[in-house]
Structure formats: structure tokens, C-alpha cells
Design goal:
By secondary structure, the protein is of the alpha/beta class. About 55% of the residues lie in helices and about 15% in strands. It folds into three domains: about 70 residues; about 160 residues, 2-Layer Sandwich (Heat Shock Protein 90); about 120 residues, Response regulator (Rossmann fold, 3-Layer(aba) Sandwich). Helix 3 packs across helix 4, helix 5 packs parallel to helix 6 and helix 6 packs antiparallel against helix 9. It is elongated. Bound molecules: adenosine-5'-triphosphate and magnesium ion.
Length: about 475
């Protein structure tokens, strides 16, 4: 018996396995002759298996890494896509608003001609000898055409260009002037903060229009804050490099940035994209015309600037207006907006307009900032109201075309008894009659007007009257 036939020591390879190894055929036992032969093979195979396992594991790791990189890249790609979409949007948005303006202007122009023809023919056909029913129908046609004409005028107001009374001004001065009006525009529960940082840097601007821009922002912010929150106003000088300038469709350079930030409801993406479009509003009928920001857009464009908005639903809104800095010196006599501190808010204003909707609209705007408003539907009613409340009435807002007694006659009779400031609200072009009234101290606001322009005009007239009274004392 050789040692090989002895039973294996404990822990050795089981016999069946040996048998399996030995059963490789004749001579195999001879090849495995050295005692370690089959074990060495086994060790080698095991080592190979282990290496294969390691290789597989390494490959799996690499695969996982590649997968992770793929996921990260996909994320980055999504970011890039989003960024490109935003850039695309920013580049296209001005074009959209511009083309809305061009379309509006084109339509308004054609529509005006059609309406003028309708009005003209209906007026010619109006004859005292006509059957009363026919006459009343014709009058209705004229009145409806006039209503249509008012609408087309508001379209034209959005696209109107270049009607600015610009002057070199320090923007911080304009902001300081506007603060009291803004404070009056906002409910007392809203805090107004202001950080003036533009110093003596100047822009070429129309102070009245710029204040209207701010008032529009403030009115919107007040609506979005539902009576409570903070409205912050900040000015700064910024240097726009080529990329940020390109996004705003401006040339690189120095700009004054006015930023108006509120803590209101903010906007979702869909709203944010449309806010500058004329007539876009999310407010109920009668609460908003959707012209506020369209006019802001028009004014800023007219000043060769840009306006930008950041907003998030539930997280407030921030508007930034960029105006190019000018190196031109200030004019010797500094013009200002005519708006100052100490606004007489306890004044009564008489609003004269035959259209109840217009009267109610003006009343709403004026009452909102604390004025007491009396209404009258025609000139004669206005004179009676004036006689009864002369002491408290500080201003009359007067429509021109009214039944019973029109605006021109009412103004003439008012002037006989009082020098009260009169603001003529008219949708007609400056004619001789209007020129005469202006010569007698009337101011004019073109219908239809925004809340902001009405407030600016009213405040300006009341401040002028208060200043005259101070001087007279
Ligand atoms: N600060 C703001 N916070 C939240 N939404 C705003 C803000 N400013 C504007 N918006 C949104 O933009 C829309 C358009 O504003 P815009 O001032 O042009 O019109 P309006 O305020 O609706 O009407 P109008 O100004 O003619 O009274 C608003 O209806 C509102 O949805
Ligand atoms: Mg508005």
C-alpha cells in the first residue's frame, strides 16, 4: 500500500473530489504525480476565479460610476436647457411686447378711421325732423362709436412714442419727490422703505413719467400685499457688462437701477411672462385694466432703458428699471415733478363726468389714497355741488362732453366764482376751446388715463395750490 491509498488526513480534499480529479483518464495520475499537482491546479483556478470576481467587481464599480456621471450630465443638460429656454424667453419677450404694441397701434389707427366714418355719417343723418325713435337709435350709434374710439385711444397710449418732456435730472431727487405720493398710494399698514444710492448720478428723463412708473409699481404691490407688507425702493449705479446688458437688450455701460420690491403674493411663471402685455390683468373686471405695466414698459423704452422682473409665487416680486446714465450737467433751474411733502390728503375733490362707470373709477382711485370725493353727472349739477361745498373742495376733475351743461361752460361759470384748480379729463385732441381753458389755468389729462397719471396730476395741482397759499400768507 502506498501512502496515496491511505485515508486523507482531516481537512483534506474529500475523496470524491480526488476521484473526480483522478478520473481524467489513463496517465492522469502520472501527470499529477508530484504530490502538490492537483492542489496547485486548484489554487490556480481559485486564484483565477478570485481575479475574475475582482475584475467583475471593478467593472461593476466603473459601470456605477459611469451611470452616476450620466445622471449628473443629464441634470446639467436639463439646467443648460432651462437656461437656454430662459435666455430665449428673455430675448423674445421684448419682441413679443413690441409686436403687441405695433399690432395695437396698427389696429387702433384703422379702427379710428372706421369709427370716425361711422360717427361722421350718423351725425350728418341726425336731424331734428327725424322720427324720435330713429333719432335715438342714431344717437346710440354715435355714443357707441365714441366708446369704441376711447378704447382705441388706450391702445394708442401704449404704443405712443417720444412724447416725453425730458430733462437732465438726479434720479434720487425724483425718488425723494415721489415718496410722499407713494406713501399716500399705499395703505397705512404697508411699510415703505427707501434706500437712495445713486447720489448725484444723472439721467435724461421725464420726471412726471418716471414717477408714474413708480406709482404703477406701488399700486400693483399694494394689491399683491393685500394690505400688509413692506415695499422697498432702492436706487443704485450699476455697470452692466456685455452679457447682462445683452439679456436686457441694452448696450454695455453705466446705468441707474431703480428697484421696487414687495413682499406680496408673487407671480407664477405663466403670469410673469405676460405682465407687460397691454390689457393683461389677473384682476377682476373693474379692478384692473392691464395697462399699468404696459405703460411702464412704454415709458422705460422711451427712456432707452430696460425693465426686468423677478418673482416667485408666494415670495414677493422685484422690478428693476435700468436707465442710462448721462454725463450732461444739470440745467441751471432744476425742474422737479412738482410733488412734495405735506400732501393735503384731507381735501375734497369734485368729479364731474356723465358716465357713471368713469365717475366710479376716478372716485375709487382718489378715495383709495384718502381724498373725499363728490360726484356730479353734468356741469349744472357740478355748479350746485360746488356752491354747497365750496370751502372744502380743493380740486375739480371735469369731463368735457356732457349733457345739460358741458365742461367748457361749467369751467367758465366756475372761474367767475373761484380760482379752484380744474383738471380737464378729455379724450379729444387739444382744440381752441381747450387752449382757452388752459390759458385760464386748467390742467389737462388725456382720457383714458392710468390710476398713476391721475394721482400724479391731482397731487401736482393740489401741491401747487398749497404752495400758492403758503406764499400768500
Ligand atoms: N407686484 C406684483 N405682484 C404680483 N403680481 C403683479 C405685480 N405687479 C403686477 N402683477 C401682475 O401683473 C398684472 C398686470 O399688471 P398691470 O399693472 O399691467 O395691470 P393691472 O394692475 O392688472 O391693472 P391696472 O394697472 O391697469 O389697474 C396684474 O394683474 C398682476 O397679475
Ligand atoms: Mg397695475
Amino acid at each position: 500500500m502506498t501512502a496515496r491509498t491511505r485515508p486523507p488526513p482531516p481537512g483534506a480534499e474529500p475523496t470524491s473530489r480526488r476521484a473526480a480529479l483522478d478520473s481524467r483518464g489513463p496517465g492522469s495520475a502520472a501527470r499529477a504525480e508530484p504530490a502538490a499537482g492537483p492542489d496547485a491546479e486548484l489554487v490556480r483556478l481559485r486564484a483565477e476565479c478570485a481575479r475574475a470576481d475582482r475584475d467583475r467587481e471593478a467593472l461593476r464599480c466603473q459601470l456605477a460610476q459611469v451611470e452616476a456621471e450620466r445622471v449628473a450630465l443629464r441634470g446639467e443638460l436639463a439646467d443648460v436647457n432651462q437656461h437656454v429656454a430662459r435666455l430665449h424667453d428673455q430675448l423674445l419677450h421684448p419682441q413679443r411686447v413690441e409686436s403687441a404694441g405695433t399690432l395695437a397701434a396698427g389696429l387702433a389707427h384703422d379702427m379710428n378711421n372706421v369709427l370716425a366714418a361711422i360717427m361722421g355719417l350718423a351725425e350728418v343723418a341726425l336731424d331734428d325732423r327725424l322720427d324720435p325713435r330713429l333719432r335715438s337709435d342714431l344717437e346710440q350709434i354715435v355714443s357707441e362709436a365714441e366708446r369704441g374710439a376711447a378704447l382705441t385711444r388706450s391702445l394708442l397710449a401704449f404704443s405712443r412714442k417720444g412724447q416725453y418732456r425730458k430733462q437732465v435730472l438726479e434720479i434720487d431727487d425724483t425718488l425723494r419727490d415721489a415718496l410722499p405720493l407713494l406713501a399716500h398710494t399705499l395703505p397705512k399698514t404697508i411699510e415703505l422703505r427707501c434706500e437712495l444710492g445713486a447720489g448725484s448720478v444723472r439721467v435724461d428723463g421725464d420726471p412726471v413719467q418716471l414717477v408714474q412708473v413708480l406709482v404703477n409699481f406701488a399700486l400693483n404691490a399694494a394689491d399683491a400685499m393685500h394690505g400688509a407688507g413692506v415695499l422697498s425702493l432702492a436706487s443704485a449705479v450699476v455697470e452692466l457688462e456685455s452679457e447682462p446688458a445683452r439679456l436686457l437688450a441694452l448696450a454695455p455701460g453705466r446705468y441707474v437701477r431703480l428697484r421696487v420690491t414687495d413682499t406680496g403674493s408673487g407671480m407664477d411663471e405663466a403670469t410673469r411672462r405676460r405682465i407687460f402685455e397691454p390689457f393683461f390683468t389677473t384682476k377682476p373686471v373693474g379692478k384692473g385694466t392691464g395697462l399699468g405695466l404696459a405703460l411702464v414698459w412704454g415709458v422705460v423704452k422711451g427712456h432707452l432703458g430696460a425693465v426686468d422682473v423677478e418673482s416667485e409665487l408666494g415670495n414677493g416680486t422685484s422690478f428693476s428699471v435700468y436707465l442710462p446714465v448721462t454725463e450732461a450737467p444739470l440745467p441751471a433751474a432744476r425742474g422737479n415733478t412738482g410733488l412734495r411733502r405735506d400732501l393735503p390728503a384731507d381735501t375734497t375733490i369734485l368729479v364731474v363726468d356723465d358716465e357713471p362707470v368713469v365717475r366710479a373709477g376716478i372716485t375709487r382711485i382718489l378715495e383709495r389714497i384718502g381724498y373725499t370725493v363728490l360726484g356730479a353727472a353734468d356741469g349744472a349739477e357740478a355748479l350746485r355741488a360746488f356752491a354747497a361745498h365750496q370751502v372744502s373742495i380743493g380740486l375739480v376733475v371735469l369731463d368735457m362732453g356732457m349733457p345739460v351743461m358741458d365742461g367748457a361752460e361749467c369751467f367758465r361759470q366756475l372761474r367767475r366764482v373761484s380760482g379752484v384748480p380744474v383738471l380737464i379729463a378729455t379724450g379729444y385732441a387739444l382744440d381752441e376751446q381747450l387752449q382757452t381753458m388752459i390759458a385760464h389755468g386748467a390742467a389737462v389729462i388725456e382720457k383714458p388715463f392710468s390710476s398713476a397719471s391721475l394721482l400724479v396730476e391731482v397731487t401736482r395741482l393740489l401741491e401747487r395750490r398749497a404752495a400758492a397759499r403758503r406764499r400768500a400768507r
